[in-house]
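ingest -> fold -> write
write: protein_1
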Amino acid sequence: MKSSSRAASNSTKGKSKTKRFPLYFSISRVSRFLKKGNYSKRVAPQAPVYLAAVLQCMAAEVLELSGKEAKNEGRSRIGPRHIELAIRSDKELSKLLPHVTIPGSGSGKKIHFHEALLPKSAGKKNRDIGPSSK
């Protein structure tokens, strides 16, 4: 009877977590970082799956918003400035990442203004808004 149970267990191969949960972020890599990061003594088997799913969701949200920012500027590529503008314009992301610095995004004070929002009295030559334009 023992041999039949072994045969049954050998015929059904186990699936890896990557095959069971089709995520873009590597579950094994997230698991390794959780274990090596000394966040706790033990890590539950579901923790890296959940964390990878959350990271994928956040990355998709930031990419979607920054893609819209790039499209508003008439660009086809997303740059660091578009990511910065996307994070600062979204209420939840700006609350989550208030002190994050993105290299290459420029100063946080210079925000792109849509042409319709600019004053009509400032001609095409003077488009700057702020204390230096007076």
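write: protein_2
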Amino acid sequence: MHQSLVFLCLLAAIFFHHSRGDVGTAARYGPPFLPTACNGNDQSQFPSGNLFAAAGEGIWDNGASCGRQYKLRCISAAVSGTCINNTIQIKIVDRAQSLVSTPSLKGTTIVLSNTAFAAIANPSATVVNVEYIQLEEMIKSMGLVVYRRQLIMIVSRIIQQSEKMKEQV
């Protein structure tokens, strides 16, 4: 019984994790989208599904953010019920400060295409609070996920072996 309790505590500790993402704000914008600060008039820069965004100054990184991909979700808004329980993947194609079209609000962390914004929030909203993580950072943390799975298997085997030993005694 004691070992089962220890195992459950270990599992809880393994699966309890804090968010690894950052929190910021997201506005929306519509066409025209060209030219962009990243790739000018190249239409091929836009991902299929139109889930793209312009980077605010906090993530612009002197243009290094061009092409970066983020997982993003709406976490709250001024009006309750604005967020849609959905996580999307977006690609940075522009700089928010130099957009050709006007965003719904200036000075946000990220400005999403209307399509991307509508995938996470009521499209009539001006701005929402978002949690986001760059995919590269997410991939780096995958090693930790593998480690958790291996640890669970090891602890499970230890408990099974100890229970077998008890039965033999």
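write: annotation protein_2
The helical segments are 2-15, 57-60, 114-120, 135-168.
The radius of gyration is 22 Å.
pipeline exit 0
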